[in-house]
């Protein structure tokens, strides 16, 4: 009997630990344990001890947000107008935008849009992913972290300032959809079994295609494992917008 109880307790602990270890890893389960969780228990692997003044708190949100002394608009970022209680240094880089050349065979289905610089919401993402700003460059009061070396993203997480070979952002989605019969209109529901009832238009930023049109950075209403609103099985994410 004791052995049975011990076995049950052991299995229970394993299951509990497993649930803790993978909490947040699944789509739609929150930011904990994802690669955007930069605490010591997260998958971000960039922990610098929380804030140096209170390392035992080991927080998650502070790398991007703060309830007090956040960056003001426009003083902290003259090129942006969206800084949601923002606590991280914002990129001021100039980005090389997407280019697809000219197709003499089917010019009607090339991107026919004026590409501007990434919008404010995209610049928040790029403030880590363009590689010009350290991930641990947070804390609005000067963005200084004494005795802590700057830690920047690398590898597949590094997008850089050259966006010429990345999916275009910073363009008017509706204008492109109106001119191209292979682009779905903005009121099109997302592909797959989307339980949130989201449409393409819900994910545009001021009508523009931006990073957040494909990615849910907090892992709350997405169905894809890479923060994508739709899991890309059978290219379901791509085929939400593209009629191919």
Can you tell me about this structure?
There is one protein chain. With 244 residues, this protein is mainly α. It folds into 2 domains: 103 residues, no CATH class; 75 residues, no CATH class. It contains 5 helices and 2 strands; from the N terminus they run H-H-E-H-E-H-H. Strands 1-2 form a two-stranded antiparallel sheet.
Structure summarized in a few sentences:
With 244 residues, the chain is mostly helical. The chain has helices spanning 2-22, 120-129, 173-179, 211-214, 238-241, and strands at 171-172, 208-209.
The termini sit apart by: 62 Å
Low-confidence stretches: 1-23
Classify the helix fraction into a percent range: 10-25%
Tell me how many strands there are: 2
Radius of gyration: 21 Å
Please indicate the count of domains. Answer: 2
Query: Biggest sheet, strands in spatial order?
Result: 1-2
* Binned strand content: under 5%
The class by helix and strand makeup works out as mainly alpha
Could you tell me the mean pLDDT?
80
Number of helices: 5
């Amino acid at each position: 009997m004791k052995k049975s109880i011990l076995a049950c307790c052991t299995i229970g602990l394993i299951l509990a630990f497993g649930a803790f270890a993978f909490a947040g890893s699944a789509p739609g389960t929150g930011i904990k344990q994802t690669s955007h969780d930069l605490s010591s228990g997260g998958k971000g692997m960039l922990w610098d001890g929380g804030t140096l003044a209170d390392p035992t708190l080991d927080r998650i949100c502070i790398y991007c947000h703060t309830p007090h002394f956040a960056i003001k608009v426009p003083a902290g970022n003259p090129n942006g107008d969206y800084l949601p209680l923002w606590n991280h240094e914002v990129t001021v880089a100039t980005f090389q935008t997407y280019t697809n050349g000219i197709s003499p065979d089917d010019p009607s289905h090339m991107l026919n849009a004026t590409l501007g610089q990434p919008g404010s919401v995209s610049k928040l993402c790029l403030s880590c992913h363009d590689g010009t700003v350290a991930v641990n460059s947070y804390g609005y009061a000067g963005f200084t972290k004494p005795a802590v070396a700057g830690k920047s993203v690398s590898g597949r997480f590094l997008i850089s300032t050259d966006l010429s070979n990345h999916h275009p952002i910073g363009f008017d989605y509706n204008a492109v959809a109106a001119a191209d019969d292979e682009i779905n209109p903005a009121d099109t529901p997302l592909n797959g079994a989307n339980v949130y009832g989201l449409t393409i238009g819900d994910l545009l930023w001021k009508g523009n295609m931006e990073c957040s049109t494909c990615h849910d950075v907090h892992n709350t209403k997405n169905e894809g494992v890479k923060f994508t609103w739709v899991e890309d099985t059978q290219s379901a994410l791509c085929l939400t917008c593209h009629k191919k």
